[in-house]
Inverse folding.
């Protein structure tokens, strides 16, 4: 599928989604919100993990931090300030921990990210405990339609970010890092700087997404917000949908939201079991994901 | 004019002395060969020059610039390119993307992806990989991957090329072909080459000067003829008087 | 200060340590021979705990007996995973290489499946049961019978396995495999069989640890995570693939946790464990598989 066709398709999709609240009821808007959330999260994730090969299993930490910032700032700052602030906080966290964390390679990086996410979660729980709060309720939160449009913007931004990174020299460097980091350095790719930037960029939108979702639920509780299931879902969506182009996360997110709609109410465990099974099946048999299968690259660029 | 100056360079790995008091110069446009038995310190020397390791002692000066403390990518930007003894292609990328990456990030970076691809195709034609340009790098044979390694190094636009046993594992026919490729690249891109080789024939034919390492020390330096006749080289390298 | 130096804390540290050592032992064996990081390891502990719970609740069977069943079940699971998923990894093809990089994700998928199957079967409510809960006193140390029994079984198993590795031919084969895979093959070690045995033993010991733990801890489908993390901390502390080191490190972690919590509070237990976990991964040298080679 050519770049132009993809762009036109995405635009059409975006417009259709924007029209949704005018045509459908609250329930569907809510489902679409979820979908957009995961599109935004998964697209951002691929900027790091799809392109550099540093698979993050702890991405919920950025989402949770963004949500925490929003919970703390709600009431003191207007919405228009909170969302970018949440994104900035997540970006700063990534850049702060990125230097030591990105020196760890391979599977150790994967479990490290998981550990970091859990650590931050428990630290936030402890902080909240000191502050005497075990959960927070957010009064006067914006209505769902507003949040829906913000989330649409975030999903669009994440998709645009991913697409532009892929087309850029920076993206080229990231792919080289993924294929062979030492060789990449030898041909002039500044690997440390690039990895750090990718890490930060991959955290930006998730932070903002977290702030929106906290306001959506009007409730903040750290164990719930920093839920590792979110990290796991992102990874599974990327693996199943494909992480080598912008269509992948869209396919993955759509597929899983559909699945969860069918299963979550009655059998959430069955949904999770299916998630696990699909992850295994795709890792084994279709690592290029649905988008890689349906839209195989013309053997230019990445595999 | 001296392009590379290696001055009293030493390298210790824990208690092991990999290099000791190695000094030599490389003039612009030269092809200097490095020979020595396995473990003599040849690849370590390359690692030091390319910035993958830090010298324990001594200085390495490239084009007047001291390389101490610089990271590999900075050294590449200055104009030093290398190949690896065990090839390291970007397996999941196409052959031309491998080379284009080097063109985008190297010492004389291409202005755009288009320009990078053009440079890549030129160089691929020179090394004889033009017909494999769109294939994945990991599908190449060893001989192909060695050429790719070479093409990638040259595409960075560097002036000094470090070739680490490029001939290893190739058949005699492939060696002859690659020799020709290296000569062509040397001429057309005005390169200075430092080449480690075990394949004696290739080394003797290519190099204008050869230095010999043994247990981390430089034991001889001179033209191929001088080295071939040097008794110390025969002692260390071949173990005894010349046949 | 008296409290810190008391025998009570020491006893607690020893018991916790023994259980950590046993839990990590399996992970170490599997990692050492096959370089697989089993993030589902803690879920095997969970399975063992549930088997013990179920056997006790429905058949009044002591966990000290049902642990045999738990071990067997886990071994079976290990064999199934080996044949179903991981055997492909060792055939040397390109697909196999890609698999190795993704093995972590595979195990993660397995973990999620195990947890949710358990949740489906037993619901998410934490369970527990009373067994051997009489208190015994030795000097000023008071320990419940179940803790003493858990300690005893764990110690026996740990040292039993150590002895096996040292004295039995197959144990030697396992050690050889851990050291140098290709060399082991060349000298005639039946890699396939040894790997299979290792994964079965590795999984079984985790489940047995779970049965032991079930006597004193709450049982829930998601109890596995902290055990996985703890096991990783232990094997990294002790040196990946170093079985003896791992056992020592198990006790070290038990001590760190017990004394750490005593000094701060039990609310910090998670922060402590995850903190050590993150710290270890950050600080240990690059390219863990022996030197400067890049683990990719």
């Amino acid at each position: 599928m050519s770049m132009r066709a993809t762009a036109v398709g995405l635009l059409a999709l975006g417009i259709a989604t924007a029209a949704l609240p005018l045509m459908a009821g609250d329930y569907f808007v809510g489902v679409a919100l979820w979908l957009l959330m995961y599109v935004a999260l998964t697209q951002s994730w691929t900027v790091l993990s799809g392109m550099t090969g540093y698979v993050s299993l702890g991405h919920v930490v950025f989402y949770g931090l963004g949500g925490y910032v929003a919970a703390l700032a709600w009431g003191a700052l207007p919405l228009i300030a909170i969302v970018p602030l949440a994104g900035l906080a997540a970006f700063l966290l990534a850049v702060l921990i990125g230097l030591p964390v990105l020196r760890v390679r391979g599977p150790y990086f994967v479990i490290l990210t998981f550990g970091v996410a859990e650590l931050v979660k428990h630290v936030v729980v402890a902080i909240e405990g000191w502050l005497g709060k075990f959960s927070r309720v957010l009064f006067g939160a914006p209505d769902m339609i507003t949040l829906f449009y913000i989330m649409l913007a975030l999903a669009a931004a994440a998709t645009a970010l991913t697409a532009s990174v892929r087309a850029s020299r920076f993206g080229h460097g990231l792919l080289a890092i993924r294929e062979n980091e030492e060789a990449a350095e030898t041909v002039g790719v500044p690997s440390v700087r690039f990895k750090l930037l990718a890490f930060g960029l991959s955290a930006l939108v998730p932070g903002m997404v977290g702030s929106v979702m906290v306001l959506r639920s009007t409730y903040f509780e750290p164990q719930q917000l920093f839920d590792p299931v979110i990290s796991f879902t992102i990874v599974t969506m990327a693996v199943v949908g494909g992480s080598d182009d912008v269509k992948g996360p869209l396919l993955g997110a759509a597929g899983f939201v559909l699945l969860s709609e069918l299963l979550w109410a009655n059998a959430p465990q069955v949904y999770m079991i299916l998630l696990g099974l699909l992850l295994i099946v795709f890792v084994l048999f279709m690592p290029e994901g649905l988008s890689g299968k349906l839209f195989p690259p013309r053997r230019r660029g990445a595999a | 004019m001296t392009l590379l100056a290696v001055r009293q360079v030493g390298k210790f790995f824990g208690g092991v002395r990999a290099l000791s008091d190695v000094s030599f110069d490389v003039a612009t446009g030269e092809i200097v060969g490095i020979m020595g038995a396995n473990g003599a310190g040849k690849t370590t020397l390359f690692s030091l020059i390319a910035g993958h390791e830090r010298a324990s002692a001594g200085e390495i000066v490239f084009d007047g610039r001291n390389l101490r403390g610089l990271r590999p990518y900075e050294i590449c930007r200055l104009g030093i390119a290398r190949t690896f003894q065990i090839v390291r292609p970007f397996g999941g990328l196409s052959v031309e993307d491998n080379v284009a990456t080097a063109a985008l990030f190297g010492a004389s970076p291409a202005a755009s992806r288009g320009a990078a691809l053009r440079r890549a195709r030129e160089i691929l034609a020179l090394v004889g990989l033009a017909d494999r340009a769109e294939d994945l790098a990991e599908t190449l044979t060893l001989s192909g991957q060695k050429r790719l390694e070479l093409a990638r190094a040259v595409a960075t636009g560097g002036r000094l090329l470090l070739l680490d046993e490029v001939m290893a594992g190739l058949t005699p026919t492939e060696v002859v072909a690659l020799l020709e490729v290296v000569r062509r690249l040397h001429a057309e891109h005005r390169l200075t080459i430092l080449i480690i080789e075990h394949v004696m024939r290739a080394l003797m034919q290519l190099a204008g000067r050869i230095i010999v390492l043994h247990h981390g020390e430089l034991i001889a330096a001179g033209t191929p003829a001088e080295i071939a006749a040097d008794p110390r080289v025969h002692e260390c390298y071949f173990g005894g008087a010349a046949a | 200060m008296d409290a810190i130096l008391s025998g009570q804390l020491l006893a607690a540290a020893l018991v916790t340590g023994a259980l950590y050592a046993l839990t990590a032992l399996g992970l170490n064996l599997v990692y050492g021979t096959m370089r697989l990081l089993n993030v589902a390891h803690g879920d095997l502990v969970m399975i063992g705990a549930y088997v013990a719970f179920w056997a006790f609740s429905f058949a009044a069977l002591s966990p000290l007996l049902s642990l045999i069943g738990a071990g067997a079940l886990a071994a079976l699971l290990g064999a199934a995973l080996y044949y179903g998923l991981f055997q492909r990894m060792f055939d040397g093809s390109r697909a196999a290489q890609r698999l190795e990089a993704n093995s972590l994700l595979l195990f993660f998928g397995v973990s999620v499946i195990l947890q949710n199957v358990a949740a489906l079967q037993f619901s998410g409510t934490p369970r527990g049961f009373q067994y051997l809960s009489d208190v015994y006193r030795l000097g000023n140390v008071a320990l419940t019978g179940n803790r003493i029994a858990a300690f005893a079984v764990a110690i026996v198993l740990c040292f039993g396995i150590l002895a096996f590795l040292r004295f039995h031919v197959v144990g030697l084969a396992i050690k050889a495999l851990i050291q140098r895979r290709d060399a082991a093959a060349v000298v005639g070690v039946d890699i396939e069989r040894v790997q299979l045995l290792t994964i079965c033993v590795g999984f079984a010991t985790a489940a047995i640890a779970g049965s032991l733990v079930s006597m004193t801890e709450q049982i829930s489908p998601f109890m596995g995570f902290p055990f996985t993390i703890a096991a990783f901390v232990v094997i990294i502390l002790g040196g990946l693939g170093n079985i003896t080191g791992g056992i020592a490190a198990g006790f070290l972690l038990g001590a760190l946790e017990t004394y750490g919590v005593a000094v701060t509070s039990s609310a910090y237990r998670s922060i402590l464990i995850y903190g050590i976990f993150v710290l270890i991964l950050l600080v240990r040298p690059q390219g863990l598989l022996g030197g400067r080679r890049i683990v990719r």
